[in-house]
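# nightly structure sweep
# worker-07 picked up a monomer target from the shared queue
# config: single-sequence mode, recycle default, output format = structure tokens
# input follows
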Amino acid sequence: MIHKLYSAYDLPADHDVCHLFEHLVIRRFLRMVEKSGGERAFIGELYGTTSESSVFFDVAFFTHESITLFEKVIADVKPFDLSMINESVAHIEAEMRSNVVIWDEKELRKQLARCQKAFTRPSSARPDKVTKSAIDPPLEIDYQPEDFIDITLTIEVSDASTQATAAFFCMYPILLDLVRSACFDRAPVYPSSHSEFTAYHDGNSVSQTYTVKKSFDWQNAGKAAQNYLRAFDPTPHADHLNNLAKAFKTDPLYNPAPIYFYQKTAAPLTKHALAKAITAANLRTILRAATVTISAAKDLGES
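# output follows
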């Protein structure tokens, strides 16, 4: 895998605009991946972080092509589409459990444009050169946790053989990404927990909690997600799966995988043994057998 960190300190906007800029860069990149025939589930890892007015992108991609594409997106100073802005705002609403209002779209676009230009020239964003707008912020963030709920997405496969369990363990992040792209991509939804793999005596599952706005029709998303997974053809992504298998064997990121797998299954498999389970045929079997359920997350205060 190729690991890189992209950063720009003290961008010329407040935290809320910089946070939106972070989401927009990632969103534009994922759109470019789709246009090139790719899928977010197979490119590797991409994380964005905004601290005050500084923005960071931590990437671990499988190919140089993905690195090149991401750097092209960072260098792109074309204005963001309004639809992309609204979709990113929806994600931020769920992430922050807040209602977000764009008070001044024109000013927001000006500040986003300044962030784009500053990110392409990091040296220009040094603290002594930053000039932030003194006018009213173009975004209003109103914390309203009562407008949001947590839901739990669970994907299960009823096959407890060692081979099937190894394949599910190695590739369950792909399942989660596919569901996220298909059902949550344009909705006010944001993951609020890490995924949790579980090996049962008669199968395997992965679950993850998401924060969603109550207005989102999450009750019907489970069936849609299941249908999408069962219809998805992994064949065009065989090369990407080979990249994942190679990463399992060679990249330090996956060094702890055998430990985690043993803790969950009591099966002693090496990284190389786990990597052998990463195939298009195994993924197809998992997809065809996947059962997806979405339910309201149980409150910690409930018994």
